[in-house]
Amino acid sequence: MAVVERHACEGCDREFSLDNLHAVTMPGGSRAVCCPECREYAETVTDNGSDIDQRRRECDGCTEEYLVSELEEVILSDGTSVLCCDSCAEHAPSNDGETDPRRQEESEAETAAELESKEPSKASRQRNLCQQCNDWYSIELYRVVTVDDRTEKFCPDCMEQARDDGIIKDVRMRRAEAYEVLGAAGFEDADDLRDAYIAQVKAVHPDRADGSRAEFKRVQAAYDRLQDEF
């Protein structure tokens, strides 16, 4: 397998092949090396002191990744401070235990406009970028750990190719697969999830005559994948 030289984008700090990086002249004359996504953003930056910071963080609600600037701080009813995407912030209880009507109204207006345009939101497009082929996908991508300890998101084709090439050390189970392994389309709460987990563990435990160590590990991985959502 040919070694492709890679370099970190100065906006999001993700690594890309040199062919997919672009030099952008920033306000003031400085130059930055950007991936296609950050390049589009960088070229819109004006002289108001903005930069190309594209740091990302998981939403504390749905655990999907967003730009830090796109997350909203929400103070929960117990005083806990969390960072949420627009959707999770809309449903998060405020200090008085109620959803903020103003935030809900704004969110509904944004959703209506998005549906009317029939274009995916910027946040949605960003979290579905395969970091290997740099194509956009509307499906949940595989989160993989490469042999050099980089965590990236791969589309199914790139994941299989990378696995064949021997450059993947670990693959995180996707949400849909986790639900399938635990035999449910969804769970009401953490107790419901744990009940399904225990039932599947009993069914496939290696100590059973018809048990399977491989299936037992899949059940454990599915539970680990979903338990942070509750």
Annotate the secondary structure layout.
Blueprint: E1 6-8, E2 15-17, E3 22-25, E4 31-34, H1 36-42, E5 56-58, E6 65-67, E7 72-75, E8 81-84, H2 86-91, H3 101-117, H4 122-126, E9 142-146, E10 151-154, H5 156-165, E11 168-172, H6 175-181, H7 190-204, H8 213-227
Antiparallel strand pairs: 1-2, 3-4, 5-6, 7-8, 9-10, 9-11
Structure description:
Helices cover 36% and strands 18% of the residues. A 3-stranded antiparallel β-sheet has the order 10-9-11. It has a two-stranded antiparallel ribbon with strand order 1-2. The model is unreliable at 95-99 and 115-126 (pLDDT under 50). It is α+β, with helices and mostly antiparallel strands. It is flat, with a radius of gyration of 21 Å. The protein folds into 4 domains: 1-54, no CATH class; 57-121, no CATH class; 128-172, no CATH class; 179-227, DnaJ domain (Helix Hairpins, Orthogonal Bundle), CATH 1.10.287.110. Helix 6 (175-181) crosses helix 8. It has 8 helices and 11 strands. It starts with 5 loop residues before the first strand and ends with a helix.
Q: Bin the helical content.
A: 25-40%
Low-confidence stretches: 95-99, 115-126
Termini, distance in Å?
Answer: 42 Å
SSE string, helix = H, strand = E?
Answer: EEEEHEEEEHHHEEHEHHH
Structural class: alpha+beta
How many distinct folded domains? 4
Radius of gyration: 21 Å
Overall shape: flat
Jot down its keywords.
11 strands, single chain, flat, 4 domains, about 20% strand, alpha+beta, two-stranded antiparallel ribbon, about 230 residues, 3-stranded antiparallel sheet
